[in-house]
């Protein structure tokens, strides 16, 4: 049993079958060939201590399948990445994600669409089960703030449009369309009165609202330091040297980009949104739109068209507009099991976010990928060796007012929380749940250190520097990468420039203070992990939006079993060393030397080649501890 392991895990052993080398299509570089190369194991059972040690040798799991990239040969070398939770320093962007969620829970930030603003006009005989209140039809009410400081319906709609524009600007910053150095600008939306519309050019009769946010953003970009001018002009189609012209072009382009991002808002509100000479304009697409005396048009999903309907009362849902009403966020950690609600959310996420074929998203594939687990659950023991939830595989459920919006699939292990996968509701994409849940998981590690002091790290899976969508993981700082040969942890900032030049790097060559590379350990004598305590908390805001990557599921048709591994030292394993390997045969478990002795002289050449490959990839310690199953 590994140091610090729970006594509960000593009653069982890890049992694995060697699958050899695996070839599969790569989900990162989208290579048309089977360029993804890894070594695979199938785990019948796996103790949390053994899986922790496998993680620290570069392994990951997909359901019950364990895989380790052959770093020298695979197309996209995948480095295990982690951070020490107590040393984590959030960046400005990560802090904004937390604040955005708080605004949403406070009711100050609304999702796309107007379903939380208005349910439409109904006749008085329509009942409503939610918390609604009645107001006069907007066509007949006066524009006023109402009692107790409540906003009128038209004013709430203007506020809604302003919030949506703010989110669109944030999206432009996050996807790199404009400089990440730009501070978020609060937009303003104003209604265009009927008198003003008459003075405008022909075709502006339907112009209802306008915003000059594009000019504000362009002006803010112009004020950036000279070193960031290239970022300021990167969204412009012309590289002009005239600063005034550059600002005008930028404002035009910005307004057009914002109009494109707000297309869903236009569909939901029956409005046409266009960027016109830098102005962001909102046009009514309904000739029968209702307006109050100030000219504010209230788009409605269903109009009271019957005679005298303008004198009737209508029901308007005002969820989120009442400051006293707050949304409730619940985070619930449950042991890994199949849940139909989670599966339905997973289907929507894969189809809308990853554009997966709906026919390929089956219950069985979902179970294999995210529900099935070989990890042997270790319950809470009441002491400081196991956290209250225990060790094992879990689903962390995020619910807002009882509605499931995200599920994080994680493994809780003796020294870490390992993040496996996340899927979320596409309807709340503006909340950046990929980033938000990662921050919550880091906080979870910090909170549970008081129960289990050894639990200090947060593992983010694989870091693939050659895949830009995976680089966001390095923004959780100070992060460390695992050296693929010596299994030492090296701070990312030390080796980043090396990874810029080449895909595969023996990271620990550059971790020492001297010029000479550190000696490689023998393959049967794994070294202890060294944790560099240097404080490196420089923040990094460059991060793509929720680029959560699917851990690849191996296609059996592309697999081949070979008795070799390319990443480890090629020195032969001695017969004495091979004799210590624990072999499982039917219902018996014995050392390889005892197996040979029991069966007498025989041709053991092929099996010994397999065993040597196995020892190289899992290490001498684990080969003595885990059971190598022969069936």
Total of helices? 16
Provide the structure class.
Answer: alpha+beta
Low-confidence stretches: 1-10, 113-150, 231-248, 287-325, 513-571
Number of strands: 23
Number of domains: 2
| Lateral arrangement of strands in the main beta sheet | 14-15-16-17-18-5-19-20
- Work out the radius of gyration: 30 Å
Shape: elongated
The average pLDDT score comes to: 75
The helical percent reads 25-40%
% residues in beta strands = 15-25%
Report on the biggest sheet: 8 strands, mixed
CA distance, first residue to last residue: 24 Å
Summarize the structure.
Helices cover 27% and strands 20% of the residues.
Provide keyphrases for this structure.
23 strands, 631 residues, 7-stranded mixed beta sheet, alpha+beta, 8-stranded mixed beta sheet, 20% strand, 2 domains
Q: Could you explain the architecture of this structure?
A:
It is a single chain. With 631 residues, this protein is of the alpha+beta class. The chain has two domains: 7-97 and 326-556, no CATH class; 109-316, no CATH class. It is 27% helix and 20% strand. The protein is built from 16 helices and 23 strands. The protein has helices spanning 48-55, 92-106, 153-174, 194-199, 213-222, 229-233, 243-261, 263-269, 340-353, 363-371, 433-448, 492-501, 575-578, 592-599, 605-618, 620-625, and strands at 15-24, 36-45, 60-62, 65-69, 79-84, 133-136, 190-191, 207-211, 271-276, 279-284, 290-291, 297-298, 313-316, 329-335, 392-400, 403-412, 416-424, 457-463, 479-482, 489-491, 582-585, 588-591, 627-629. It has an eight-stranded mixed β-sheet, sandwiched between helices. Strands 3-4-2-1-23-21-22 form a seven-stranded mixed β-sheet. β19 and β20 (489-491) form a beta hairpin. α2 (92-106) crosses α11 (433-448) and α5 (213-222) packs across α7 (243-261). The chain is elongated. The chain starts with 14 loop residues before the first strand and ends with a strand.
């Amino acid at each position: 049993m590994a140091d610090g392991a729970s006594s509960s895990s000593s009653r069982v052993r890890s049992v694995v079958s060697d699958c050899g080398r695996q070839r599969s299509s790569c989900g990162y570089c989208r290579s048309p060939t089977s360029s993804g190369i890894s070594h695979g194991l199938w785990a019948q059972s796996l103790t949390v201590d053994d899986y922790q040690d496998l993680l620290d040798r570069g392994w990951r799991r997909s359901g019950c399948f364990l895989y380790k990239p052959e770093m020298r040969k695979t197309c996209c070398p995948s480095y295990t990445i982690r951070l020490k939770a107590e040393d984590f320093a959030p960046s400005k962007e990560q802090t904004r994600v937390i604040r955005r969620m708080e605004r949403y829970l406070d009711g100050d930030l609304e999702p796309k669409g107007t379903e939380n603003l208005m349910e439409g006009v109904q006749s008085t005989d329509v009942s409503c089960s939610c918390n609604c209140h009645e107001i006069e039809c907007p066509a007949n009410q006066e524009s006023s703030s109402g009692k107790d400081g409540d906003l009128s319906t038209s004013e709430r709609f203007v506020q809604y449009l302003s919030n949506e524009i703010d989110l669109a600007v944030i999206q432009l910053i996050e996807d790199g369309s404009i400089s990440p150095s730009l501070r978020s600008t609060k937009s303003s939306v104003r209604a265009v009165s009927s008198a003003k519309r008459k003075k405008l050019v022909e075709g502006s009769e339907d112009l209802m609202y306008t915003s000059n946010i594009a000019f504000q953003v362009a002006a803010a970009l112009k004020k950036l330091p000279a070193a960031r001018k290239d970022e300021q002009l990167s969204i412009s189609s012309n590289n002009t040297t005239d600063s005034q012209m550059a600002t005008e072009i930028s404002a035009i382009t910005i307004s057009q980009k914002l109009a494109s991002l707000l297309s869903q808002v236009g569909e939901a509100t029956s409005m046409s949104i266009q960027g016109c000479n830098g102005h962001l304009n909102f046009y009514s697409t309904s000739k029968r739109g209702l307006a109050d005396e100030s000219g504010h048009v209230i788009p409605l999903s269903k109009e009271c068209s019957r005679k005298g309907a303008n004198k009737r009362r209508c029901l308007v849902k005002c969820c989120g507009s009442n400051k006293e009403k707050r949304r409730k966020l619940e985070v619930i950690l449950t042991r890994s099991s199949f849940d139909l609600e989670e599966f339905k959310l997973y289907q929507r996420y894969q189809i809308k976010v990853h554009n997966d074929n709906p026919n390929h998203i089956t219950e069985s594939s979902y179970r294999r990928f995210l529900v099935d687990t070989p990890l042997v659950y270790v319950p809470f023991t009441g002491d400081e060796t196991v956290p209250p939830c225990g060790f094992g595989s879990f689903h962390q459920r995020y619910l807002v007012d009882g509605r499931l919006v995200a599920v994080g699939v994680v493994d809780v292990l003796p020294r870490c929380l390992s993040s496996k996968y996340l899927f979320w509701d596409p309807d709340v994409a503006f909340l950046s749940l990929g980033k938000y849940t990662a921050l919550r998981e880091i906080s979870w590690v910090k909170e549970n250190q008081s129960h289990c002091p050894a639990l200090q790290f947060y593992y983010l899976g694989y870091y693939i520097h050659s895949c830009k969508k995976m680089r966001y993981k390095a923004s959780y700082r100070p992060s460390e990468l695992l050296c693929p040969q010596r299994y030492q942890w090296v701070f990312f900032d030390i080796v980043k420039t090396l990874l810029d030049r080449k895909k595969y790097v023996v990271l620990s060559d550059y971790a020492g203070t001297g010029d000479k590379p550190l000696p490689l350990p023998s393959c049967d004598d794994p070294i202890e992990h060294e944790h560099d305590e240097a404080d490196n908390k420089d923040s990094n805001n460059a991060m793509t939006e929720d680029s959560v990557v699917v851990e690849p599921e191996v296609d059996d048709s592309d697999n081949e079993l070979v008795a070799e591994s390319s990443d480890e030292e090629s020195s032969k394993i001695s017969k004495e060393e091979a004799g210590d390997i624990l072999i499982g045969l039917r219902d018996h478990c014995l050392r390889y030397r005892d197996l040979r002795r029991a069966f007498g002289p025989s041709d053991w050449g092929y099996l010994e080649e397999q065993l040597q490959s196995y020892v190289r990839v899992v290490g001498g310690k684990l080969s003595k501890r885990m059971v190598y199953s022969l069936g």
